[in-house]
């Protein structure tokens, strides 16, 4: 295993090729020339390891690709223009008409749309299960099952799957496994070491870290990654721009510091919220009362700054009143940046559809950024004070 500092600061950075600049150059070129026709022919025969045209590979992207693969303990990586691109393209590559997928219930919204609305057009069927219970995988498997899709933890209820056990189960049946590891990143969770075949992440989140780039990454063994690259990736054209790759390289430099800061601050804030008289429940994998706490500590080194909580008075109006009153915590989607955010599920539900007995509807998802915890607690408290009046 390579040293983390070496991966983040040195791996892939051949500085003598760009004037010994400390920060890598942005090779913005879309096209690359060759000294001979033979060189060009060889490049066209294998674009996976050659700079021919930036719809395939590019020198700036190659530096990032090497780092992200090494962080995951993977053989190789592919970079995409979004996190959902890093999920959709490999699924289109690996699945065909008649195939069956087992997926955890309540995945990321666009992943759910992919399974529910898009893949059925090609005759691909998905069974959604509560992945917290391993026997659900055993019950759902069919002779046509070709892929098991995990998201551990997911990003609202933070339900976990026993990653190694599922990976072993799938390998014994020659089923490909894939996981969305955006929540934990490679620093807090290593799915490939647990036997998972493909790991996707929204690089928009912690890898970028500054809320200024949208990107995705897929890691895995070279055979699978190259198969995806040479067919669906090159045909669909989701290649990341060199400038976006450079922003992600910049984000990687401080990833351990930002991730740890977010983790430590979230400990403070979730503890404070769990004791607040206006809060019914806090849901975070490292909370003392989280039902899968032992599994969380078993397969995660640390925990993301993303959690959910429920107010004791969880009417539609009270939830929105509380969120609207926040002064420094922004109402926004996404997470993983420097700024703290809040997203109530009521934003996804019309008031007439709101069900006070549906726990999912009551959730307020919060992300803790890099601000001082006391600063955020003061903002939360003044919002609580407002809804109490």
Average predicted local confidence, pLDDT: 96
Major beta sheet, specifics? 7 strands, mixed
Number of helices: 15
Order of helices and strands, N to C?
A: HHHEHEHEHEHEHEEHHHEHEHEEHEH
Overall, the morphology is: globular
User: How big a fraction of the residues is strand?
Assistant: 5-15%
Give the low-confidence spans: none
Task: Tell me the CATH superfamily of the largest domain.
Answer: Type I PLP-dependent aspartate aminotransferase-like (Major domain)
Q: How is the largest sheet built, in terms of strand order?
A: 1-7-6-5-4-2-3
Q: Could you say which structural class the secondary elements and strand pairing correspond to?
A: alpha/beta
Q: What is the CATH class name of the largest domain? A: Alpha Beta
Estimated helix fraction: 25-40%
Please count the beta strands (DSSP E, at least 2 residues each): 12
Tell me the Rg in angstroms. 22 Å
N- and C-termini, Cα separation: 56 Å
| CATH architecture tag of the largest domain | 3-Layer(aba) Sandwich
How many domains is the backbone divided into?
Answer: 2
CATH level-3 fold name of the largest domain: Aspartate Aminotransferase, domain 2
